[in-house]
Amino acid sequence: MKNNMKRIVSICLILLFVSIQITGVFASESSYVTLKFGSRGSAVVKLQQALINKGYLKDKADGIFGPKTEKAVINFQIANGIRIDGIAGKQTQSILYAQPVSRGSTLSRDQSSTDLYWLSRIIHAESEAEPYKGKVAVGNVILNRVKSSNFPNTVKGVIFEYWEGIPQFSPVAEGTIYNNPSEDSINAAKDALNGVRPVGEASYFFNPDKAAGKWIVQNKTYVIRIGNHVFYK
Fold first, then answer.
1. What sign does the CA torsion over 61, 62, 68, 73 have?
2. Sign of the CA dihedral 179, 180, 182, 187?
3. 77 near 64, Cβ under 8 Å?
């Protein structure tokens, strides 16, 4: 009898442990809260702050999911190629809150400073007279190349890449890459580094008034025109 009681108690303890583990798994799976138009509270504040940090929301984090927050969520979804519904569900939140990681390791402070230094200079050299969105777009292209296995994996490496003895970016050949960038160019570089992606996955751009861009037009997909530049992916 005593042995049977011990066996029953043991089984009950095992079942209790398993149920706790399963409950924990489901709790972690559903720990996020779906946020949409009309939502309020601290979870909305967290969402808004993340959108502000990445440049999608130009407003304060007031904890109210209104039209501006909804538009920011939609723009973030468009930029990241995920379902566009203006609702911050599990997929949107997981991507938004994910920490940006470079290939192999996180960037050091020195690396980040170097990226900002060169990115702001190529933005200024390529798009000094372009609208602000166009400046950020140039930074977007450079960073897309950094992430691609088809190009060097640093900002400086992308900018100073040569193909058959010819620099990929004319400011390198002209020397204007070394000009001091304007405040707008620096801010545009910061926005691009913070994840603002006005041209999505585009990896090429050119000014059709100055260059034919024949190879790009024939081999790549048109994305958008901003100012004097056309962007392709």
1. positive
2. positive
3. no
Q: Is the model's pTM score more than 0.85?
A: no
Terminal-residue alpha carbon distance, the chain: 75
Residue 88 CA to residue 77 CA, distance in Å, equals: 9
Whether 125 and 84 share a structural domain:
no
8 is a domain residue: no
Checking if the pLDDT of 26 tops 70, the result is: no
Report phi then psi at 129, rounded to 5: -95, 5
Q: Are residues 192 and 226 in the same domain?
A: yes
Going by pLDDT thresholds of 50, 70 and 90, the confidence category of residue 6 is: low
Q: How many contiguous H segments (helices) and E segments (strands) does the chain have?
A: 10, 5
Alpha carbon distance 134, 128 (integer Å)? 9
Tally of domains within the chain: 2
* Beta carbons of 84 and 72 less than 8 angstroms apart: no
In a domain, 156, yes or no: yes
How far is residue 92's CA from residue 75's CA, in Å, rounded to a whole number?
11
The predicted-structure confidence for 66-89, as pLDDT tens digits, reads as follows 999 999 898 888 777 788 899 999
Is residue 189 situated within a structural domain? yes
- Which pLDDT does position 175 carry in this prediction? 93
The domain of 66 spans: 42-97
